[in-house]
Amino acid sequence: MLVARGPYGESELSVIDDALVSTILEYLRRGMRVALCQVVFKEGSAPRDVGARMVVGEDGRSFGTIGGGAFEAGVVSDALRAIEEGRPRLVKYSFAGEPVEGARDTGLICGGLLWVYVDVFVPRPRAVVVGLGNVGKPLSHVLKLMGYEVYALDTDERFRKVAEELGIPVFVGTVEEVAGRIREVVKRGDHVFVVYGAVEADYLFVRESLKTEAGTVWLLGSRRKVAEFVKRLVSEGFGGEDLVRRLRAPVGIDIGADTPEEVAVSIAAELVALKRGASVKSLNAVPRLVAELSGTAAQTAQ
Questions:
Q1: Taking a C-beta distance cutoff of 8 angstroms, is the pair 215, 189 a contact?
Q2: More confident residue, 136 or 18
Q3: Which domains, and CATH codes, for the chain?
């Protein structure tokens, strides 16, 4: 018998069900978060023993069981909160039929206590880089170093070799084909970086990216170019709130970047700041532009 020794004593180790492992991997493959809930300590009488496991997906579906009824429903609820926060948690549940300090009351009267550890698994972050030119190449390299799964798109066959050197997959086609590919490859929560460099193509790529479930869409360009894009997007029916939330342009933080490599670093730095909630001097002008357009629309209505 294998024995685990931890802060709550000893328990027999069990082999996790292959079906639960497959379920976790399938959620991650689909770009979705998932939680593994496991009974890690038992005191007195309770529905399941140490080692009982259940998987809960961010869509609310559960697989396996750790007890059923109101108790299991409570664990699912706690797992969904853990998934939303992106942090694991240890929760104590009471089956005493009366309040127990520090424990969630299940309403059941088995008489004991259970501790359930909820571990959260998140998919590897993905970045889709549209354009492998002067900025796209170093940006893809930096993103890969940061642990992102990078997928590239371009219209120039020469960049197949660049992608091969970087060790990332690439799709090469016409502008229209690349735009169509964006809709196919971008998953929910992905970061899409449009650093291609041709005005009309960039607009098409940004527009199609915003039609997906991408978490953020990043555009490399001048303030004038960004202002024109925002105006066109709003005129085509894209909501101002969604643009403020997801579109970041011009990309990068203000570090006086000049070379393509420095620009790539400034973009990556803004991505880190966004992820960590850090306050930096971003070049992003979308919130101001949307506010200005909203103000203009209100004055026109008057």
A1: yes
A2: 136
A3: 3-121 (no CATH), 126-295 (3.40.50.720)
